[in-house]
Amino acid sequence: MRRFLLTLLCLLPLAAAAAVNPAVVPLSRMNLPAWRAHFIAMLAAAKADPDARVVWLGDSITQYWQRAGGHGYDDVLPVWQHDYAGPYRALAFGCIGDTTASLIWRLDHGEVAGLHPKLAIILIGANNLGRVHWDAALTVPGIEAVVDDTHARLPGTHILLLGILPSIRSAWIDRQTGLVNTGLRQHYAGNPTVTYLDAGGVLLRGGRADPALFVDPRLTPPEPAIHPDAEGMARIAAFIQPEVARLTR
């Protein structure tokens, strides 16, 4: 019996550690040179334009607002300049591969310091469902933690929270995406400082993600559809524009 109790006591810290949700724990990626350089560049961008009225926060989809591709379909930058940089002096703070955990780390390490935008647009969570395989039960609290952290650092800023966009990866990811978006819609219903909006419908055809609206299937070799192309991003911008205009008055 004593040996059993000792074994149980040794296992308790492991059980407690297992109960921690990794999606809410700040995670640095500063060991990756490209990520570190991009993060430093974002800090400089924030310092250079403290009067930006709109700030996007997210992962590679947000980073790709700055994409100036050479094939037309991947030339997203003109959409950004027309819909955000021009009218709102907007900033896009997105990092390829980031989960909610790394976005929280970025917020905690000065990404929005000195800014006072009217609106923060958050699009995060797609990578939670990818390689790290964090399901909806972990990802919803992770996104809520991002929202809370953003509010703490930008207390006068309204948040437009976008649902995870559709992709063509797996049935499990499709199912978890639906669960995440349903959970977020319910959680923020009626919230005076957070507006939830699901823009994913503009990327669908026949109820599924339309591969013709994504960059990835056109790559060599082709990859799973995750990143909307210029037309897809223009559709997203047009869909959310009424809310963006209303919330930046």
Q: What topology does this entry show?
A:
Blueprint: H1 2-18, H2 33-48, E1 54-58, H3 60-63, H4 77-88, E2 91-94, H5 100-108, E3 119-123, H6 136-153, E4 158-162, H7 171-187, E5 194-197, E6 204-205, E7 208-209, H8 230-247
Parallel strand pairs: 1-2, 1-3, 3-4, 4-5
Antiparallel strand pairs: 6-7
Helix pairs in contact: 4-8, 5-6, 6-7
Report what the structure shows.
The chain is of the alpha/beta class and 249 residues long. It is 45% helix and 11% strand. It is built from eight helices and seven strands, in the order ααβααβαβαβαβββα. It has helices at residues 2-18, 33-48, 60-63, 77-88, 100-108, 136-153, 171-187, 230-247; strands at residues 54-58, 91-94, 119-123, 158-162, 194-197, 204-205, 208-209. The strands form two sheets. The chain has a five-stranded parallel beta sheet with strand order 2-1-3-4-5, sandwiched between helices. Strand 6 and strand 7 form a beta hairpin. Helix 5 packs parallel to helix 6 and helix 6 crosses helix 7. The longest helix is centred in the middle third of the chain and has 18 residues, at 136-153. The protein is globular. The termini are far apart. The model is unreliable at 1-12 (pLDDT under 50).
